[in-house]
Amino acid sequence: MKKIIPLLLLTIATTFSTVIITPSIANDIRQERVQFKSGATSTTIEHSIKGYEIIDYVVNARKGQLMNVSMATDNGANYFNILEPGQNEVAIFNGSTSGNQFEKTLAQSGDYKIRVYMMRSAARRNETANYRLEIIIY
């Protein structure tokens, strides 16, 4: 029993020190509202992200409209996901498994999020990704 207590205390101390010392890798997600020019059905965004940076491009669309999103990037670990209105975590499209092209007739009206990010391996190396995101809704 005398040997178990010090070992237990060491385990608890190590666990808590790991929690306290380990930095958070998840940055806040920056949101940018996407506005189409009057009469336009598409827009193009050219930007870059670095490391763990994540950007949600928020675009309002209506049920029954067709959304087409494509991304060209200079970093193979740079992707985007699509989240339906009201969702913050569950994506209807995951670029890391489906590629950088999305097209679908929308099931609901509201604000869709196009979440641009890098895979953790590239983010951990603090890589930069320059991308061109094209959004078409009609």
Tell me about this structure.
- The protein has 138 residues and is an alpha+beta fold.
- It contains 3 helices and 9 strands, in the order H-E-E-E-E-E-E-H-E-E-H-E.
- The strands form 2 sheets. It has a 5-stranded mixed β-sheet with strand order 1-3-8-5-6. A 4-stranded antiparallel β-sheet has the order 2-9-4-7, with no helix packed on it.
- Mean pLDDT is 86; it is low at 4-26.
Q: Which key features would you list for this structure?
A:
globular; five-stranded mixed beta sheet; alpha+beta; Jelly Rolls; 9 strands; 138 residues; four-stranded antiparallel beta sheet; 3 helices
- Topology order in helix (H) and strand (E) letters: HEEEEEEHEEHE
* Percent helix range: 10-25%
**Which range does the strand content fall in?**
35-45%
- Tally the structural domains: 1
Mean pLDDT: 86
The N- to C-terminal Cα distance equals 71 Å
Which CATH class applies here? Answer: Mainly Beta
Uncertain spans: 4-26
Give the neighbour order of strands across the main sheet: 1-3-8-5-6
CATH-level-2 architecture: Sandwich
What is the molecular shape? globular
Main sheet summary: 5 strands, mixed
Q: Given the structure, what is the number of helices?
A: 3
Radius of gyration: 20 Å
Number-wise, the strands total 9
Q: What is the oligomeric state here?
A: single chain
Q: Could you please say which CATH topology applies here? A: Jelly Rolls
Structural class: alpha+beta
